[in-house]
TrEMBL record:
Domain of life: Archaea
Alphabetical UniProt keywords: ATP-binding, Nucleotide-binding, Transport
Name by which UniProt lists this protein: ABC transporter domain-containing protein
Pfam families assigned: ABC_tran (PF00005)
Gene3D superfamilies found in the cross-reference section: P-loop containing nucleotide triphosphate hydrolases (3.40.50.300)
Residue ranges of the TM segments: none
Molecular function GO labels: ATP binding; ATP hydrolysis activity
Organism: Halococcus morrhuae DSM 1307
Keyword Nucleotide-binding: yes
Biased composition (Polar residues): 1-11
Ranges for region Disordered: 1-30, 268-290
Length: 290
């Protein structure tokens, strides 16, 4: 004899549950969102103040690839360091996953133009460093990062034994070993020769397309900004704020040969025009004329 059915779940309960489940599968969990609200950052103190950023607002969706273009000294790195948690805003707020940033966190990985590899550690020790600090080394992940970054065979090399491009790949592997939700990249490829830079751009696009990560990438290279991004944010001269946001409607996956297409050229022209006056203003500031 079968058990009597004591389940009181109704059809609408099931619908509600499955709706909820469906939403949790299809909607972003919000992991990796960045919200910059009316950010102001002032360096120095009374009488000797420099307003680097003022009235900056920007929302970045989870898994979005955003590039930031702006003239030198307009506050790009300052904004990034506020998101990284290295700097506190003077006014306004930086929220990550709807929570105010309170200091650095491995879920927000940072890459600079000059790599931050420890010169006295091997590449393998560098890549493992973050997870090891948390007692959380995933050997298969480390191996696959070496493979993905084309660094197999260089595990025991020291950073100064590698070329600039390989050092930046090791830096990317080191960053990815922490499995960050957000990658903050400050002109990471600007010190590389043109060919290596192109290869690194392709590598980064592969990494981003494979994983669910948000990327904020600062560059002064208009072509690079468009090639990589979902949206290009153009900043004003100092004090920096958002001047323009350009949606990049080029198809994905992207490849470096797209730079010759008409649409790419149109977007490039628009970004260059947008930044032109700001670059002029920044130059006047640097020369003390503004
Ligand atoms: P960008 O990244 O766009 O080149 P930064 O964010 O590095 O610009 O700098 C913005 C402005 O703030 C520049 O004028 C810079 O000289 C100044 N600045 C940056 N860091 C400091 C600091 N620690 N103390 C004083 N001024 C700073």
């Amino acid at each position: 004899m079968s058990e009597p059915n004591t389940d009181t779940t109704t059809r609408s309960d099931i619908d509600e549950q499955s709706d909820e489940q469906f939403r949790s599968w299809t909607e972003s969990s919000g992991t990796g969102t960045v919200n910059i609200q009316d950010l102001r950052k002032v360096y120095g103190d009374d009488g000797d103040e420099l307003v680097a950023v003022d009235g900056m607002d920007l929302h970045i969706e989870a898994e979005e690839f955003v590039t930031v273009l702006g003239p030198s000294g307009c506050g790009k790195s300052t904004v990034m360091e506020c998101i990284a948690g290295y700097l506190d805003p003077t006014e306004g707020e930086v929220l990550v996953n709807d929570e105010p940033v309170e200091g650095p966190d491995p879920s927000r990985g940072v890459v600079f133009q000059e790599n931050r590899l420890f010169p006295w550690k091997t590449i393998s020790e560098n890549v493992r460093f973050g997870p090891q600090m948390r007692d959380d080394v995933d050997e298969s992940r480390v191996a696959s990062l070496f493979d993905q970054m084309g660094l197999e065979g260089f595990e025991d090399a020291y950073p100064n034994e590698l070329s600039g491009g390989m050092q930046q790949r090791a830096e990317l592997a080191r960053l990815l070993a922490n499995d960050p939700d957000i990658m903050l990249m400050d002109e990471p490829f600007s010190g590389l020769d043109a060919m290596t830079k192109e290869l690194m751009q392709e590598k980064l696009l592969d990494v981003w397309e494979d994983d669910d990560r948000t990327v904020l990438f600062i560059t002064h290279d208009v072509e690079e900004a468009i090639l990589l991004a979902d949206r290009v944010v153009v900043m004003t001269a100092r004090p920096g704020q958002v001047k323009d946001v350009i949606d990049v409607d080029l198809e994905r996956p992207r490849s470096t040969d797209m730079v010759t297409t008409d649409r790419f050229n149109e977007l490039q022209r628009r970004a260059s025009e947008s930044i032109h006056d700001e670059a002029e203003r920044a130059m006047e500031q640097a020369e003390g004329r503004a």
